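User: structure tokens for Ribose-5-phosphate isomerase A, please.
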Amino acid sequence: MKDSKELKLMTVDDAVAQIENNMVIGIGTGSTIELLIPKIAERIQLEDLNITGVCTSNKSAYIAKQLKIHVVDINDVDHVDLAIDGADEVDPNLNLIKGGGGALFREKVIDEMATRFVVLADESKLVDYLGQNFKLPVEVDKFNWLHIAKNIESNFNISTERRMNDDVPFITDNGNYILDCKLHEQLDPYNLHEFLIHLTGVLETGYFLDITKQAIIGTQQGVRTIDK
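Assistant: Done. Predicted tokens:
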């Protein structure tokens, strides 16, 4: 029986194989991507590839730079050829919930820019509908976070909590809070995203809808590839 890390590792090689010379690569955030980045660096060095990386978090950028990957700011590129990231949930239409690591805004910027966005996950992340197992993260301004939380709870069958890191509020790389929203029933992700994104003080939601081109899933039976 393979553990979660082994399942994630199974997905990495198929993603790295999609990298080509002179590409701009979007590098995601989280435990799966921390397994991916050394493999990207290894391929660059073995094949002497000219690769530019744009990263969805300060942590990923730090790891990539330590491994001699050329990393630039997102505003220094006009396109992203391939973005690779993990996910917290993947539904049958390859729609996602992301943001467990708190980098959902920067992830969405880069993933939406990408010509091709590939998701890596283990089979535990496959769900029948978004919100089935994982709370929906929403990045919000510090100023009115509690009013946003109350507004969400008064309109939907949802419980919200401000994400904490030990005993202090978690702060994103953008200097904001995260509200983790527990859905108590199946809700339409398109409708809920539209409601949330128009609340004053909401920067972005963890719904990634109609963005993913391919999911590479590590299972006990082997690697399963799902194409959009």
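User: Anything notable?

Assistant: The chain has two domains: 4-125+209-227, 135-206.
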